[in-house]
Automatic annotation (TrEMBL):
Entry protein name: TetR family transcriptional regulator
Keyword terms of this UniProt record: DNA-binding, Transcription, Transcription regulation
TM regions (residue ranges): none
The organism's place on the tree of life at top rank: Bacteria
Domain (HTH tetR-type): residue spans on this chain: 20-80
Organism lineage: Bacteria, Bacillati, Actinomycetota, Actinomycetes, Micrococcales
Gene3D superfamilies attached to this UniProt entry: Homeodomain-like (1.10.10.60), Tetracycline Repressor, domain 2 (1.10.357.10)
Chain residues forming the annotated DNA-binding region: 43-62
Length: 222
């Protein structure tokens, strides 16, 4: 008779997937409520109601509201790390890596806008250890973009810009989709937002002799 028992590895993988999905469900509910009402005004019961679970279930995943808030913010930074790396792939051209990294950051902001807003509004309410951990993680998530800008300067493809200033200017631009969504969201499609800001940023730094090489990224500014 054929056994119907599930292999231990498969069972563990299935359990891990269910746990991950439940955790994301809770983080999404918390981000939505906290972005709308502010973390101090959102109870764990309210998060449970929004997620459609018992409040006891939340405490199986998070120790308390500060733990939950920190997890929401960390989830955005972890998305940056994963999706920006994926967006860059094995692209050898540093200027195109800049464009790909910027697009990756913008896509995360668009998909996790409420959580991105929380990172700005509520991170100050975390304890010192939590704030330090977030700052370190944010620095790490910016490294692919910093590295691409550095390589583009070293290769003589763009002007000798202040690398951290230029890289973080792009990051702040990506975040503006969340911070100023009341304006941008009603006036421009997200894809056009990314393309237009990519063109503006690169147009300001590309060397004259390299502009033709990136005409597709510059659009009407080529």
């Amino acid at each position: 008779m054929r056994s119907t028992a599930v292999a231990p590895d498969a069972a563990e993988a299935a359990q891990g997937a269910r746990t991950g999905a439940r955790r994301r469900q809770l983080l999404t509910a918390a981000a939505r409520l906290m972005a709308e009402h502010g973390s101090p005004n959102v109870s764990m019961q309210a998060v449970a109601d929004e997620a459609g679970v018992s409040v006891g279930l939340i405490y199986r995943y998070f120790g308390g509201k500060q733990d939950l808030l920190q997890a929401v913010i960390v989830s955005v930074l972890e998305s940056f790390a994963a999706r920006v790396t994926e967006a860059i792939g094995d692209e050898p051209d540093p200027v195109r890596r800049i464009a790909a990294a910027f697009a990756g950051y913008c896509d995360v902001i668009a998909d996790e806008r409420e959580a991105a807003l929380l990172a700005y509004r509520e991170s100050k309410s975390l304890d010192p250890a939590g704030r330090h951990a977030l700052m370190e993680l944010e620095i790490q998530t910016a490294q692919p973009l910093v590295a691409a800008v550095t390589d583009a300067v070293d290769a003589g493809l763009i002007r000798a810009v202040n690398v951290p200033v230029f890289a973080y200017q792009l990051l702040m631009t990506a975040h503006s989709w969340a911070l100023k969504h009341w304006y941008f969201g009603t006036r421009i499609a997200h894809a056009d937002f990314v393309a237009d800001h990519t063109a503006l940023a690169l147009s300001a730094v590309l060397r004259p002799e390299t502009r033709d090489r990136y005409a597709d990224l510059l659009g009407s500014l080529a």
